[in-house]
């Protein structure tokens, strides 16, 4: 009985974690409100046990006039030193074989961090990429799950196969922040 209770207590944060709508942020100058969902994983690719791989996470933001899909790209100990340039595209392939093309309007290099763990030195590259979503994009994403994402950059492409349970996280996030679309 003690062990069952201990295991339940340890697993409770994992089991109860879910998509959340975070506390609204209010701009002090304009008094505009920004709504955000919590950050969720879409894909983990690689073997973090051996210290390499790439991760794709997302969250949704709603400002006064626009909706944004924010993608967070992270690599650990890969050869990738990436940057995004305004005009680079990301393709979202849906389960019905249609493709949504998103274009970024920001230019930024990835943040590179180095750290030591034991006798090994690791490097981590990470970047946050915002994409504006139209109401048509939101309606398609709510109705049809994503199966594949390609982030196209000048030096390389990042490809991610999306599992159905992770695609459902995006659908739920959109339903939370844009229920009327």
A few lines on this structure:
This protein is α+β, with helices and mostly antiparallel strands and 181 residues long. It has helices at residues 2-16, 135-143, 164-177; strands at 25-26, 33-36, 40-47, 52-62, 67-76, 83-84, 89-94, 99-103, 108-109, 111-117, 120-133, 146-152, 157-161.
Keywords, separated by commas or semicolons:
181 residues, globular, alpha+beta, seven-stranded antiparallel beta sheet, four-stranded antiparallel beta sheet, single chain, 21% helix
Question: Can you offer a commentary on this structure?
Answer:
With 181 residues, the protein is of the alpha+beta class. The chain is built from 3 helices and 13 strands. Strands 1, 2, 3, 4, 5, 10 and 11 form a 7-stranded antiparallel beta sheet that branches. A 4-stranded antiparallel beta sheet has the order 8-7-12-13. It has a two-stranded antiparallel sheet with strand order 6-9. The protein is globular, with a radius of gyration of 18 Å. 20% of the residues are buried.
Tally of extended strands? 13
Q: What does the radius of gyration come to?
A: 18 Å
What profile does the largest beta sheet have? 7 strands, antiparallel
Kindly estimate the percentage of residues that lie in beta strands according to DSSP: over 45%
Alpha plus pi helix count: 3
Helix content: 10-25%
Distance between the termini: 48 Å
Task: Find the structural class using helix and strand composition.
Answer: alpha+beta
Poorly predicted runs are 11-16
Shape estimate: globular
- The average pLDDT is 84
H/E element string? HEEEEEEEEEEEHEEH
